[in-house]
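Task: complex structure prediction.
Instruction: return structure tokens for all chains below.
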Amino acid sequence: MQSSPASAQASASKPATRVGAAREAVAGYGFIAIPMAIFLVLQIGMLFYAAYISLWNWNIRSGPVDFVGLGNFQRLLTQPLFLTALKNTVYYAALWVPLTMAVGLFLAVVVNQKIRGQTFFRSAFYFPAIASSAAITVLWLFIVAPFGLFNEIRGALGLNPLFQLLGYGPHHDWIGDYRTALNTIVVLNVWTTSGTFMLFYLAALQAIPTDVYEAAAIDGASQWQVFRRITFPLLRPAHFFVATVGVIGALQLFDQSFIAGGPDGSPVNSLMTIVLYLYNALFTQINPGYAAAVGIVLFVLIFSATLIQRRLFGREPEW
Amino acid sequence: MEPSSDPVDDARQLTAPDAALRRLQVARQGPKQPVSGHKWRRRIAYVILITYAVLMFTPFAWSVVTSFKTLPDSLNLSFIPQPFTLDAWRYALTELDPNVVVLFMNSLVIASIVTLTNLALGSLAGYAFARLRFPGRELLFLVVLGTLMIPDQLRVVPVYILFNNFRLTVGLGQYVAVILLLAISATSIFLMRQYFLTIPKDLEDAAKVDGAGFFTTFARVMLPLASPALAAVAILQFQGAWNSFFWPVIFLKEQTHYTLPLGLTFFRLSGGFGTNWPPLMATVVIATIPILILYVFFQRYFVEGVAAAGVKG
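Output:
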């Protein structure tokens, strides 16, 4: 009998017998058993189950009724409400991701200066991210209400003529007007998430080697030139990471829409998103096959967005 | 050229773990500027930082102030309630239906159980993936990390149908459903594994020589050494579960089973209450305070949690 490579490997680091190795393996499987069971059933298994359900006209109690193939997907693309949800979600992602990245990067660069109280400022800027989406959204709705803090402060600062010019009265109902509702959610989420993006950028900034800056200083580059020509391009992997995390999160927009506008994304579906549409397909239309198809479409969207961004940001710096 | 910040002064206001980080940062500082230009830049930085910090805190301060106001006064732009009243708090705690104390307890029970399961399952699995040798270990660990790429929204339909078959969509089963879905996260296993990898093997080997079994070695020797990682997992998971919205809104359909986020949403969406802001702000404060307390004392772990979330991408 030859000893197996595995046990040979084991005996290299520690004098373990074959019985000892077997006992160790049993212990290992035992230690991971419950999490692996949960992951295999509730994560991996559900991936395939979702794909299966999406091909059926499915009854929530009795199960599959008839096989419709890609019928659920075909129907999806002809529903005006789904196209509204798609449009709103893409609009939100296109606006929110760059804005939050810009604010997060700006904060990271400022916090990364040689300043006192760096820890305090870092904590302060991350602070809005710790509260629940429900608490922060309800608080935000109060602030942007017709007689809320935002309208009162802009009045007190004498900014009303400017807002009037843009067509907003002194007591504009930001979340109640379908034209401004989604933008109001964008601003809310920029506020709550820019601190998180700041932390990502801060970690990347602190990983840039000093000698790069020293070379620039010797060449007499200005601060802005250093940022524009050196720091910003060197942050490319961070840009990719933050943009990817941002787009994935943006395409899943749900909490704030639901809390502000209820299941139908009021006013006039201006807050309807893909996930909100899925929620309605499952609980209002009670059509699991159709809802599963929405989930698959979302997954494909997220996956392709990640791939596209890898193409955009994935290249190495050019020097 | 002189570095214009005083390292002694800087070190004074930093806690010990942050001081280490700070030393790292100082070592990696950018080019030294002429003193005058540098000072100017710092002044601008301070103005921006302080303005933005105030902007961050104002909405929360406003919710606290408003919770002590009367309804008509809540529409005034004044940071001092006139008159100061506890009516909104009394109303929030006793009159609201579902009762806010019940909501609080529901949130607390779910978040506590989820924290405990993540600690127990995460540390066991993290230890196994870090230290025990068994066939397929690397592949299985990839499966664990892979679960982070499956969006919850893709799982929601099959999970709902599965749980519906097991009657986890009615009565107390609704809690079981939410807890099962949050019971173990790949992030917990990942954090624990990374920490166990940094612990020297000597201690463990000594225990083995003494004839201790794998579980005894884990529980008696390794677990006590991993307390920083356990703290990070506990805080991350408690915050996540306390704030969670998606799975609770899918499964907790009875008002008496609502958590605080669901209660807040219900109060907001059920008409008539929409404009009675002071009690609503009191509820916002109640929903935020436990996390705020954790944040004040364990700020470092929150920030580390974000870094870990970064790794998982």
